[in-house]
Structures are given as C-alpha cells and as structure tokens.
Amino acid sequence: MTSTALNLNYLQAKKGIFSWIFSVDHKRIGLLYLYSLITFFLVGATLGVLMRLELLNPGKDLFEAQTYNQIFTMHGVIMIFLFIIPSIPAVFGNFFLPIMLGTDDVSFPRLNLLSWWIYIIGAIMALSTLLFGDGPADTGWTFYVPYSVKTGTNVTMSVLAAFVLGFSSILTGLNFIVTIHRLKTPGMTFLKMPLFAWALYATSWIQLLATPVIGITLLMIVAERVFGVGLFDPSIGGDPILYQHLFWIYSHPAVYIMALPAFGIISELLPTFSNRTIFGYKAIAFSSLAIAFVGYFVWGHHMFTSGMSGLARIIYSIMTFLVAIPTAIKVFNWVATLYKGSIDVQPPLLYGLGFIFQFMIGGLSGLVLGALATDIHLHDTYFVVGHFHYVMFGGTGFAFFGALHYWYPKIWGRMYNKLVANIAFFILFIGFNLLYFPMMIAGLMGMPRRYYDYLPEFHLPNMISTYGSWVLAIGLLLMLGNLIAGFRRKHEKIARNPWGTGITLEWQTLSPPPVANFDRMPVLPKDGPYDYDHKPEIKE
Amino acid sequence: MSHTKDNLPKEEQVHITSYKDHFSTLIALLLLTVITVVISVFGANLRSLSVFTALLIATVKVIVVAYYFMHLKYDKKVYTWLVLIVAILFVSFAVLTSIEYLNR
Ligand code: HEM
Ligand SMILES: [Cu+2]
C-alpha cells in the first residue's frame, strides 16, 4: 500500500452504500449499528411519548385499552432488544475495543458483519408484526405465560424476532472475548487493559452464557402455542412459574449486559476529565466480573409475588443484596477519582455525572424492590417503571449519549457546538427526572403498571410525568440536532487528542482513524493504562 | 503414548492422542451405557433415585468425552476452568429452581 492510501481515513477509504453494509471494518460496522440503533430508539421514544399522552388525564383519550397494551409491548421490545442490549457494545465496543487494545480489527471481522445483519433481520421480524398477522403482541416485553400462549395477537413472530436477535448478541460477545484474549498489542496484559475493555469482557461472558437460555425459552412458547406441548400449562402437566424462572435466568443477567458497558464508559470519562489516574483500577475491573457472576443467582427477585416458595424468596432476596456490594465499590471509586482531580466540565463529563446521579436513584430503588417485604407492595406498580427507566435510560442511556459526545471528534473528525450540547444536557436531565420521578411516587401511592387508565387520585404525578416527557423530547431533539449539525461545522482539523487529557490508545491515532487504525505504533503508558505521570507524548 | 511436535512454539503445540487412548475411552463409554441399561431394565428398585443414578452415569460419560475426545486433558488449564464455570452455572440454575419447586 502507498503511504497516501495508508493514511486515508476509514470514512474516505471506499464510497457507496455497499461499501458500508458489506464492510468488515469494525469501525464502519460500529457506525452501522449506531445509525440503526438511533432509528429504533426514536421509534421507541415516540411510542413512549404517545403513552404518556394517553396518561396525561384519567379516562380514555387516544387509544383503546388493547392498542395501549400493544404499544407498551412494542415500546418495551424495541427499547430492550433493539436499543439497550446492543447499544454500547455494538456501537462503541465495535469501534473502540480494537483501537484501545492497539490492534487493527476484531478477531472475526466477517462474523462481526454477520452479527449486524442478523440484528437487522431480527429487527425487521419484530416490526413486521405491525403489518402482518393479527397485530403486534400485547403481552408486555416479558411474554409471560399463560397469557402469551392464549392471546390472539402475533406473539409467535415477536418471540422469534427476540430469538434471532439473541444470536446477534451471542456472536458479538464471542468476538469480543476472543479479541481480548488474542489481539492485545504486545506489552498490554489483562491488567494493563483500559477499564472499558474489562467491562466489555465481563459483558461478553454474560452474552455468551445467558442468551442461549432465553433462546430456548422463547422457542418453548412457540412450541406451546403452535403444537400444544404441555410445558407451561398446568392442565396438561406444565408449570407456568417455570416460564418465569427460565425467562429471568436470562433477563436478570441481561440487566448487566445493559449496565456493565455503561460502567466501562464512566470509567473512561472520569480520568480524562479529571486529568488524573483512575482510583482503584483493580477494584473496578474485578467488580465487573463479580457483578457478572453474582448476577446469575438473583433472578428470582422478579418473581416474589408469583406464588413461588417462601424459602426461595428469602434466598433470592439475600443474593440480590449481595450484588449491591460490587456495584457500590464502583461508585465509591468513581467519586474518589473525581476527588482532587483537575476537573474540566465538558459535555461528556456532564453525561457521566448525570449517569452517577440517576444510576444511584435507580440502584437504590432497586434495593427497595429486592427487599422481599417492600416488593410485595411495589411489584407491578409504577415504582418499578420508574426504577428501571432510571437504571436503563438514566443510567445506560445517558452513558451512551456521554460516549457519543466523548468520541464524536475521534469518530468523525468533527466537533459539535459545546454550548448547545451543554444546554441540551440540562434540558434532558430536567426532563428525565420530571418524567420518571413522579412515576415512583405514583407507584408508592399504589398505581399499577400496564394500564391505559388510572384512578383520579393519581392525576397529579401523571400530569407532571407527561410534561416531563415533552421536556425530555425537546432535549433529545436538541442533542441529536446539535450532533448532526456538527457534521457540517467549519473548524480546524481535529487533533489526535482533542480533549488534551485522553490517555487510552485511541487518542494516539488520527481523528478519524485510518483504515488500519494506527499510522504509527501506539505507545503504552509505563504503569498501566491510566498512568498520567508517564503519559506518552502525542505528536500530531 | 502421546506425541508433541517439538518444532512448534509452545502455544501451537498439538497433542495427538494414541489409538490406545481412543479405544479405552470408547470401551469405558460403552461399559457405562451397558450399566445404564442394566439398571433400568433389570431395575434394582431405585424409585426416586433412578433419575439421579441415570444423571450420575451420564455426567461421568460427559466428563470422559470432554476430557479425552475433546482434548481438555491436553489443552491449557484455562479451558478446563471455562468448562467448569459453565457447568457450575448450569447446575446452580437447576438446583435453585428445584429448591423453589420442591418447597412450594
Ligand atoms: C422518550 C422516552 C420514554 C418514555 C416517554 C417512556 C415511557 C414509558 C411508559 C409510560 C411506560 C409504562 C407503560 C405502562 O406500564 O403502562 C414504559 C414502559 C417501558 N419502557 Fe419506557 N419510556 C421511554 C424510554 C425508554 C427507554 C430508553 C427504555 C430502555 C432503555 C425503555 C424501556 C421500557 C420498558 C422495558 C418498559 C416496560 C414495557 C412493558 O411493560 O412490557 N423506555 N415506558
Ligand atoms: Cu433482576
């Protein structure tokens, strides 16, 4: 290759739609995921805002009860399977894991492309229920039996879609595990890996080991619906609670598929914007593994009111509290990293701080639900809806946006307007908390979830929540608009290390990176990835 | 008897299992199968232990297959660990679910 061809960046290297959708370059595949994910996120968010509109006032306003049931199911399926589970690993993991490890691609580039295609096929299957069959499923995203076996809506297709999407997730996980084991640049050991790589490593193991369980479980629904096999129906020898076991054996660990990569992002943002080493590197790295491991044994906390045995409820409740320990270890280490750092409040850091605040509310409300006695009262109320939005959206969603602002100059070699980005963050932050905090209060008052209507006494929190959804929507549009406008802004060439204080290897290469990722050998800091005392000099 | 290709770097060394090892493994597996059949047909009256016994024998067979046919014995220890972790996870899923079911 000539030197000019070598320095062509990955965006310029080839042109045309086919050079993208059949690309095996991990950076382009990351962007394919990004654009598809954002699209589905916007569809899901629109459904969310529509639900809030129905709930602005008591009484039936916009939708029939049945339509509302289908909307929250579609909203849940899209947000979980098409947005939040792939989110950070598929986009930023794909783009940055190889670069942070100092290598030129993932271990199996073609498998990587296949994962994206499988994802798209699964997405088409999920959305096809809007057009074909007897309408989208109305079961909720959890597809609980016996209703999911009895309902006339198109549960079979939705469930098969989730099954197919699982394969995409498994293949990405497999690819990352092998990449991390085999492709680290010479000199980089496990304990010299950036924490984002550690987080992805723990996540990948969950994807690989837990996802097959949901795959087979969903096929069992199809077997029961189509062939009347008596797996879950007690009248023909099945057990409905068995479904809940199998479903949550996957879906609780899946919560960590959503959360761990976000922890990884925060662990990158904090050193960069405090200009100092991360506090407790090993504690953060190993607590990811601990969370991944303990997270396998707590699934029963979703089933406290299902009629399961009392002994099992106590075991699951205790196990659930154990997960709080490694999670708290992380939060303390993050806060300690900020302490006495020279903090530079840039837009990505705002999202990082927003994450910590909202994730704490989500996590602590999770303990309220993990405690057996309180969960009996709060199960299936709006408290739960508030709780999981705080974790998934206020936590992982905000970390995703933070990552987008953090790596934007690296990915596109452009810069957005920082003032607008800051304003958008505050609108989002206020909107988010207005939208979801009242939900928790409504839940404490006793308002059940998954209904298109409510008693008049719940009016006030619902009204505030709906106003919040409008503020949030404005914030989202402003944030995305600002990022898109950034593509066309005129400014000087973006430096290799535009924040000045980035220390992981992606900040040593060009922005945007060349096709082969590095134009010269990356240099590792002397004592571990966040050794700010021996930060390698980066010449342009 | 086992051979290693000494000219390759340590990481890439391949182990070739002898015919003797293969056949002994095969015979062990066949014997275990015979035992399973004998127990179930000529039924020592095991009652609720019959499932347990069948699973026990099956587990021994799995270990033999993984160890010799699938080469765990000759691979790096990390692979044994990985298989163990997966096995532990699976067993704990089954045990936790059964505890719940049996105490309902
Ligand atoms: C514009 C933003 C959003 C709004 C306005 C919104 C609103 C809502 C509302 C009102 C419900 C409750 C429906 C009910 O129980 O009656 C709901 C459920 C849900 N939301 Fe959101 N949401 C938004 C974003 C998200 C995001 C980003 C995620 C995931 C990352 C998410 C995941 C879910 C899930 C899993 C459910 C449960 C669906 C079910 O009950 O089966 N939402 N959302
Ligand atoms: Cu859970």
Explain the layout of strands and helices.
The complex is a heterodimer of chains A (540) and B (104).
Chain A: H1 3-7, H2 17-21, H3 26-54, H4 65-84, H5 87-100, H6 109-128, H7 147-150, H8 155-182, H9 195-227, H10 240-274, H11 281-294, H12 310-338, H13 347-370, H14 372-378, H15 382-412, H16 418-445, H17 459-486
Chain B: E1 3-4, E2 15-16, H1 19-41, H2 49-69, H3 77-102
Antiparallel strand pairs in B: 1-2
The complex binds protoporphyrin IX containing FE and copper (II) ion.
Protoporphyrin IX containing FE (HEM) is lined by residues 45, 48-49, 51-52, 72-73, 75-76, 79-80, 83-84, 140-141, 385, 389, 392-393, 397, 449-451, 469, 472 of chain A.
Description of the molecule:
The complex is a heterodimer of chains A (540) and B (104). By secondary structure, chain A is mainly α. Chain A has 17 helices and no strands. Chain A has a single domain (27-534), classed as Up-down Bundle (Cytochrome C Oxidase, Chain A), CATH 1.20.210.10. In chain A, helix 5 packs parallel to helix 8 (155-182). In chain A, 53% of the residues are buried. With 104 residues, chain B is mainly alpha-helical. Chain B folds into two domains: 16-73; 76-104. Chain B has three helices and two strands, in the order E-E-H-H-H. Chain B has helices spanning 19-41, 49-69, 77-102, and strands at 3-4, 15-16. In chain B, helix 1 packs antiparallel against helix 2 (49-69). The longest helix of chain B is centred in the last third of the chain and has 26 residues, at 77-102. Chain B is flat. Mean pLDDT of chain B is 81; it is low at 1-5. The structure holds protoporphyrin IX containing FE and copper (II) ion.
Give me the secondary-structure category of chain B. Answer: mainly alpha
Uncertain segments of chain B: 1-5
| Gross CATH architecture of chain A | Up-down Bundle
Record the strand order, biggest sheet of chain B: 1-2
What is the strand tally of chain A? Answer: 0
CATH topology term of chain A:
Cytochrome C Oxidase, Chain A
- CATH class annotation of chain A: Mainly Alpha
| Total domains of chain A | 1
